[in-house]
């Protein structure tokens, strides 16, 4: 593909992607995701969306074997793209949550999850007890107008001490303010001793850009980043 052909994407794909990233209110956005569910996987294939693959590969790299028994929570699981990649890498005990019933229906049809629940992150707590999961993933949902960075403590709550958190965000222009906020929040939790950063991997070709403005230096792609954190095994004494 010659450079600068972000515009090579079908207009309909571009419009659907732009719609969910636009600053619409949450109920409206969840409706858009419900409506997008049927076409979501073909659209992200057109976008060459690599986040699920990159996130699962990074988590598998950090994760000590064995994986089959490990309990994982796939937050904002969508149609199950991340679950598919995790499954390929030997993770078998997967639960998922998403704010869109339409997306959950698709995820259910994959047969990859043990439990799937509706949960609007940032509005309500995760439907899981404290220190329940060996790893928690949030791939693609941490972004401007989507999941607020204030959810990080809630992700930590459901993670076992010593467990892993795999998070991703985009580095395109319209998400830079959010990314800075997210990184500040990640850093504050690290300073408090809540978790330790194992990886922050910037990836140049994250997905196809939907506009020239978003494209990295005319490549037609946007960049992104994968973070892996490990929850500190020592409980935070100040909280008692």
From TrEMBL:
<dbReference type="InterPro" id="IPR029063">
    <property type="entry name" value="SAM-dependent_MTases_sf"/>
</dbReference>
<feature type="domain" description="Methyltransferase type 11">
    <location>
        <begin position="73"/>
        <end position="166"/>
    </location>
</feature>
<protein>
    <submittedName>
        <fullName>MET27 protein</fullName>
    </submittedName>
</protein>
<dbReference type="Pfam" id="PF08241">
    <property type="entry name" value="Methyltransf_11"/>
</dbReference>
<dbReference type="GO" id="GO:0008757">
    <property type="term" value="F:S-adenosylmethionine-dependent methyltransferase activity"/>
</dbReference>
<dbReference type="InterPro" id="IPR013216">
    <property type="entry name" value="Methyltransf_11"/>
</dbReference>
